[in-house]
Every structure is written in C-alpha cells, then in structure tokens.
Amino acid sequence: MKLGLISDTHGFLDPRLPKLFRGVDHILHAGDIGPDRLLAQLESIAPVTAVLGNTDSSNWINLTETPTLGGRKFLIHHIVSPRSLTAELEAQIKLAQPNVILFGHTHRRFEETINGVLFINPGYSGQPKQGVERSVAVLHLEKMLRVEFISL
Predict the structure, then answer these.
(1) Which residues span the domain enclosing 73?
(2) Sign of torsion, CA 142 146 149 150?
C-alpha cells in the first residue's frame, strides 16, 4: 500500500501532483488546505483524509484524525512539535497509540522515529516562493515503513 502525504497547500495544488501521486491508495493532508475545492481535486486522485490547519476554517474537517490504513494507525494533526508535545497531544497519542504521526505547519520536511512512533512532515506544497523548498511525500507501507520525499 502507498499513501500520498501532503500539507500546507494554502489553496494551491501543484499541477504535477496527479502524476506524482498516481497509484497511491489514499492521500493524507496535514492541514492548511485552503478552499474545500482543493480536497475535491485530491479526491479525483485517491480517497483523502484531511485535518484543519491554523489557516483553515471549514466546518466539516476535524482538527485531528486517526485513520487505520494498511494495518497501521495514523494520527494526523497540523501543529506538532515532535520533541516537545503538548499535554493535549500526548493524551491523544496515548489514547490512539499510532504507528505514524503526520503533521505540517513548519513548511519543512521531517522524518524521525521517536519513542517507537514515526513522525513525518511532508513539507510545504503551496505556491512556489523564492528560496522556499517545496515537497510532498509517498509513504510505502511495506514490512518496514519507507518515506519517499518528492521535491516540487
């Protein structure tokens, strides 16, 4: 199973994304989406699970999601500081017991296993900006989880 990981689109969907995410079974969006129509565009590629970011205002998207995909439990939340979790987030993690935590907000890609949990930030994928690296990721759910970052 392959998952497309994306965050911080801020209303812009890179035109290369349908090709880059071709063959993914599900897309996880870690917030700062922009207009709801962007999720409809992603849905044309694969089913989507998304969370609200600090710039979103949708009434039907949650702050946190905990889907199980490919036998792995995910916790998706926009603002996460992997090395200094808030008490609220620690409680959510304890309850959900995820294998993977997907987040965004920092606009920087991140991959690190901490206390047995894989933390991933796919990076910023919004409008191109001078000097700002843009990326998404594909997570391969194999015997071992493998993150493939893709520069935009």
Answers:
(1) 2-151
(2) negative
Best CA proximity match to 17, nearest among 6, 29, 33: 6
List the beta strands (DSSP E) in the chain: 2-6, 26-29, 48-50, 64-65, 68-69, 72-77, 100-102, 110-114, 117-121, 135-141, 145-151
> Distance between CA 144 and CA 141 in Å, rounded?
7
Q: What is the pLDDT of residue 72?
A: 96
Q: How far apart are CA 112 and CA 97, in angstroms?
A: 17
In one-letter notation, the amino acid at residue 69 is L
How much is the mean pLDDT over the chain? 95
Q: Which residues of 28-39 are buried (b: 16+ CB within 10 A; e: fewer)?
A: bbbbbbbeeebb
Q: Among residues 147, 95, 138, 142, which one has the least CA distance to residue 119?
A: 147
Residue among 71, 77, 79, 84 nearest 143 (CA): 71
How many structural domains compose the chain?
Answer: 1
Give the tens place of pLDDT for each residue, 99-144.
999 999 999 999 999 999 999 999 999 998 888 899 999 999 988 8
Which CATH number does the domain housing residue 87 bear? 3.60.21.10
